[in-house]
Amino acid sequence: MTSYIDVPTKTIVTPEKKTFAYREIGTDTGVPVIGLIHLSGNLDNWDPTVIDGIAQEHRLILPDYQGVGGSGGKAAKTIQGMAQEIREFIHALGFKQIDLFGFSMGGFVAQEVINQEPTLIRRAMLTGTGPRGGQGIGNVTSISDRSLAKAIFTFKDVKTYLFFTRTANGKNQAARFLKRIKARKTNRDRSIGWNAYRTQLKAINQWSTETAIDFSKLEIPVLVANGDDDLMVPTKPNSYDLAKAFKNSKLVIYPDAGHAGVFQFNDDFVKQANDFLR
User: Fold this and answer.
1) Which Pfam family is one of this chain's hits (predicted)?
2) Residue 139 to residue 70: CA distance in whole angstroms
3) What φ, ψ does residue 63 adopt, rounded to 5°?
4) 159: which strand partners?
5) What percent of the chain has pLDDT over 90?
6) Neighbours of 58 (CB within 10 A)
7) Which domain holds residue 254?
8) Model pTM above 0.85
9) Please, are residues 108 and 79 in contact by the beta-carbon 8 Å criterion?
């Protein structure tokens, strides 16, 4: 199987005349897994170790949001708007049912996809994320701005500070993760523009003030996973509240890990994900 760092980028135009860039990897059987990335993320921000591991057993399709990377259009102003556009993308590919893998803001978008069209979803993995209106989610802008300033001053990638703990182990894991996501050397995706980035931040801020979604009547199995010390979406209470919001859920919390706990513990998470998706 071709590694994620080598798969080509494809595009599709939806009936709504929206162009989406995406990458596809894995076995061409079973229910496809749609991956939704974090704030400011593009196709090169997925950990290839996790994607390759899940792709050994499943088909993954990873799109750029509108206004990001190789996709056309402008960034949606709300999380609900992002979800609507992702649904248009899914339907343009002809899928009647999918699994979702949302990380961080992608987990917010995934929840809105479930809320808008629950019959479309077979299973969902919600990682490094929390419920709508969750505690501390409204602080993402200030946390991101402070970390970005620190990253510029120290000549480091901002994800060093946002995604990992500041323990010796966390710093080491951050360096290893950044090396993995920079392994692709050709045909890399275009970085998000400043306007699209601020639009996404405003969408998160608005989402953080809204009422939690009632998932209590849904039977959809959900895997919730996070590090035990998430700076961006505080693990307590958000990961725990999100798991409780679904009647059929499993919660995995990784020790000495932050927002990107599922990438730090990539081997275990791949096993957890494949077992869950099976």
Assistant:
1) Abhydrolase_1
2) 29
3) -95, 155
4) none
5) 98
6) 21
7) 4-277
8) yes
9) yes
